[in-house]
Design goal:
The protein starts with a strand and ends with a strand. The strands form seven sheets. Strands 20, 21, 24, 25, 26, 28, 31, 33 and 34 form a nine-stranded mixed β-sheet that branches. It has an eight-stranded antiparallel β-sheet with strand order 1-2-30-29-32-27-22-23. A six-stranded mixed β-sheet has the order 14-19-18-17-15-16, sandwiched between helices. By secondary structure, the protein is of the alpha/beta class. It contains 24 helices and 34 strands.
């Protein structure tokens, strides 16, 4: 532990055993995150009251009355009612509980009879990443047989398994992985999308699974959002058409093979407005007016419901401060009553726990709002089950609402034939492992790669290349199938994968090598662009881009590529300086500000996240051996390209908004719909040379970032921890073995916290996010972390104030002398963010922007935790 005494403050680079034990607890977030409710909920509850009153006065005329794609069958409805009449309350609530495979056993399924279960991203049978299709089938079969075992509860209702197959059956080794949605949007080919969805359904059914959590129909408005690549387009009309196509591909046509033994149940998600949150913050607040909510964010649901989608997933985000998982107006009045959706609404990963007044273990509000199935991973499923039963018995949830929810679940199960189909191991496609990644499926994925590529620059018609050339292939994405596939690829984040994890797949380099070798040329791979003088290449293809991420882990605060670490730009410059023509192939989940990289490229291809069939890129970059074009570029931008790093919300005007002002406000670097082909005239091309490389960081407008003012500010939540455990706060009073914490009044009611450390062991209180947050804009300025604090007794051991980032990293300073200097008085402590800089701190991935920790016996009060953009005379600085 290295310590330096500066102006009464000890600065520590904490990578020690004591800090790592605690940090492991602090950062113990898995999967989609532990969405435990916090003290913020008290404030949110007040917002709910106001917004609910306002919503009640809203007219529903904005929303169309859709004709259900699948008409209700009176015979089926009678069958559903008859089955419900035989069910106990416990059996009904069990239908509404969806646990995760890591948190239940076969015996749990036999005892409780859960209506469904899931595998989250990175969850596999036997916790084995390399589980075989046979392992998946065996697990599906065992849970199914347990669910229909009526020896325990006297009821026989088959369970169903849901999975995130978002670009193919992406959790299973060897499956065909298609381009992520952003690439498919650039292809703008709904028929191809339907074909992709049908293939995905087949590969899913090989492993005995019934239900897919797709499509995502978010219409992205701010490209900083970490789920941008899950959106097809910023244009709601593309999203609408794609939603229809992919639902038909997954489920079959309602006029033909609807939910046959070749198809799965689909889920249109996430209802509603997830792509329009403020500042692109995942799980944040969408403040669009209701007309825009429909015109922009609802179009995918119109498309999906018209195709007969049988489930809809509620979204983590809020609409005007009200969490969607608890918004009756949206889930019931709009979706179920006005849009006439008669399938079921499933929650997202513990999303009910974010509703005001709820926790992961208890949320009557979500049921009453219209949620039909709780997605409740972790051991929280059991108390949630028990509490929901108690809430029905107490009258907090009506029996009618439970019966409605269960009716919807059973309706979908009957429509899907789950009561009549053979068990998972005995279905027509089950175990046909030759379908997993089969050649015809990969051919379609390869076609999708070709059609998704967008040619943005092609000076002197450098492309297409002749295959008889000497080609250097460089960049760390060139021979990296995991990187080219992005998040939601075998693991949740798409990380920790090797090429050997993708049997049957091809990297971009391997595709290039095959084409060049067959054409009589020579392909050389050098990630760093090295070559001997006698091997100087005719051309360099540099494949580079974003590292894989999923959900909020991908949230960033501006769109500059490799801000602060321009290693890929250095590679491009090195090659250009040697007189080598450079073709850039950019791997990314969103458009990014790459002006410098454009300037160093003779040709530039936006390849998005192409998936497992990397050879599709070589198909388009190279001619046939005889010089003729085999495949031209056909992809067009479905997202506008930013002109500055700060231009994060550049969206083509809606069809209904062709006003002069809307057109004047639309000023991207490259507009929506742009894309060159080999037939394009030079006059069609936008000049992407000599672009400004000023990232405007000095003039970027930054406002103070409030973390805790009267209440915890979104997306942060408050936690307490010891060396052995961390817990989120769901009430005004909490404790663990090291401390007690409660709300207190400083200026107004409950605007501060009093923490009583008992001195028995190291205790911690702080703020945490479900996902890492990008605070580089603040660290690059003369910003400070400011906190108002008061100690009631002399602090006789170190009191540390710190920040932590993703992984085992944090920096902290000892503020003991400062606090003791004004014992018993409130004071503002301002510490320059520079004090927390240096290895291993990464301000681009902050998970904990503030914590206090000590093993002293002392009472500490604090309030008003803010990152301020300008320092004051009283700022503590570190050299």
């Amino acid at each position: 532990m290295k310590q330096t005494q500066l102006q009464g403050v000890t600065r520590v680079n904490m990578l020690t055993k004591i800090s790592l034990i605690t940090l492991g607890v602090l950062l113990g977030l898995s999967g989609c995150g532990d969405n435990q409710t916090t003290n913020q909920l008290a404030t949110e509850a007040a917002v709910v009251t106001v917004t609910a009153d306002e919503t009640a006065s809203n007219t529903l005329t904005i929303w169309p009355e859709l004709t259900p794609a699948v008409a209700k069958d009176p015979v089926l409805e009678a069958k559903i009612a008859g089955l419900i009449s035989k069910m106990t309350l416990e059996q009904k609530v069990a239908q509404m509980i969806q646990p995760e495979i890591r948190d239940i056993t076969v015996e749990d399924m036999r005892q409780y009879g859960f209506g469904s279960y899931l595998n989250g991203g990175g969850a596999y049978p036997n916790n084995d990443k390399h589980a075989t299709p046979a392992d998946w089938i065996a697990l599906a079969e065992s849970f199914y047989q347990a669910s229909i075992d009526d020896s325990v509860d006297g009821i026989n209702i088959p369970t169903m398994w849901g999975t995130d197959a978002v670009h193919g059956h992406n959790n299973v080794i060897g499956a065909t992985l298609f381009p992520h949605n952003i690439g498919l949007g650039a292809a703008n080919n709904p028929k191809l999308i339907e074909q992709i969805a049908a293939i995905t359904a087949q590969e899913v059914m090989v492993t005995g699974i019934d239900w897919v959590f797709a499509p995502t129909v978010a219409v992205v408005r701010d490209d900083r959002w970490g789920r941008t690549y899950e959106g097809y387009s910023e244009d709601p009309q593309i999203v609408k058409a794609y939603a229809y196509a992919i639902v038909e591909g997954l489920q079959g046509s309602v006029k033909a093979d609807f939910l046959s033994d070749q198809h799965v149940i689909s889920t249109v998600k996430h209802f509603i407005g997830d792509g329009g949150t403020e500042n692109g913050i995942d799980q944040g607040d969408n403040i669009a007016n209701e007309q825009d909510l429909y015109d922009i964010h609802a179009q995918g649901y119109v498309g999906g419901l018209n195709a007969g989608a049988q489930s809809v997933m509620a979204s983590f985000n809020s609409w005007h401060g009200v969490k969607n998982h608890g918004n009756k107006y949206l889930l019931t009045d709009v979706l179920k009553d006005k849009l006439n959706f008669d399938g079921f609404v499933v929650g997202d990963w513990n999303g009910h726990g974010q509703v005001a007044g709820c926790s992961n273990e208890s949320c009557a509000q979500s049921v009453n709002a219209g949620l039909d199935i709780f997605m409740v991973p972790t051991a929280a499923w059991k108390p949630l089950y028990e509490n929901t039963i108690a809430q029905v018995n107490s009258g907090e949830i009506s029996q009618a609402r439970i019966d409605d929810a269960v009716s919807r679940i059973l309706r979908v199960k009957f429509r899907a034939g789950l009561f009549d189909k053979p068990s998972p191991a005995n279905r027509p496609l089950s175990g046909k492992t030759e379908l997993i990644g089969q050649a015809s499926h990969r051919d379609v994925a390869r076609q999708a790669v070709r059609e998704s590529l967008v040619l943005l620059k092609n000076n002197q018609s450098l492309l297409p290349l002749k295959p008889n050339a000497k080609v250097l292939v460089a960049g760390d994405a060139a021979d990296n199938i995991g990187k080219q596939s992005g998040g939601w690829t075998i693991t949740w984040q798409g990380t920790d994968n090797k090429n050997s994890d993708f049997p049957g797949a091809t990297s971009i380099y391997s595709g290039i090598k095959q084409v060049v070798t067959q054409g009589g040329g020579e392909a050389m791979l050098s990630v760093t662009g090295e070559f001997s003088p006698e091997q100087k290449p005719d051309v360099a293809i540099v494949v580079f881009g974003e590292e894989p991420y999923a959900e909020g882990n991908g949230d960033i605060d501006n769109l500059e590529y490799q801000r602060g670490d321009k290693r890929d730009l250095a590679l491009l410059k090195k090659l250009k300086a040697q007189g080598i023509p450079v073709v850039s192939v950019f791997i990314s989940g969103r458009p990014m500000w790459v002006n410098s990289e454009f300037n160093q490229s003779d040709a530039f291809v936006a390849a998005w996240l192409p998936g497992s069939e990397g050879q599709g890129i070589a198909d388009v970059l190279f001619t046939k051996p005889d010089g003729s074009v085999g495949y031209d570029f056909v992809g067009k931008l479905s997202f506008s390209w930013p002109s500055t790093p700060q231009q994060t919300q550049v969206n083509v005007p809606l069809v209904q908004d062709k006003s002069a002002q809307a057109q004047a406000d639309y000023q991207p670097l490259i507009p929506y719909g742009y894309g060159l082909s080999y037939q394009s005239a030079s006059t069609d091309a936008i000049a992407l040379d000599k672009l400004s490389e000023d990232n405007f960081s000095a003039t970027q407008t930054l406002e103070d970032l409030a973390l805790f003012e009267r209440a915890v500010k979104s997306p942060w939540s408050m936690y307490i921890a010891t060396n052995n455990e961390r817990q989120g706060l769901s009430s005004s009073v909490a404790n663990n073995n090291a401390l007690n914490i409660r709300t207190m009044d400083r200026v107004v009611q409950e605007d501060a916290r009093l923490v009583s450390f008992n001195g028995s062991e190291l205790g911690t209180v702080g703020l945490i996010s479900n996902f890492p947050r990008d605070l580089r804009a603040y660290s690059n300025r003369d910003s400070v972390l400011s906190v108002s604090i008061k100690a009631l007794q002399l602090v006789q051991k170190p009191l540390w104030l710190g920040l932590a980032c993703e992984g085992d990293c944090r920096q902290q300073v000892d503020i003991t002398k400062l606090v003791n200097a004004k014992l018993g008085d409130w004071q503002n402590i301002n510490i320059s963010l520079a004090c927390f800089a240096g290895e291993p701190m990464d301000f681009g991935k902050i998970t904990i922007p503030f914590y206090l920790t000590t093993d002293a016996k002392v009472d500490i009060s604090f309030s008003d935790v803010v990152i301020k953009t300008t320092s004051t005379e009283n700022t503590i600085r570190c050299n």
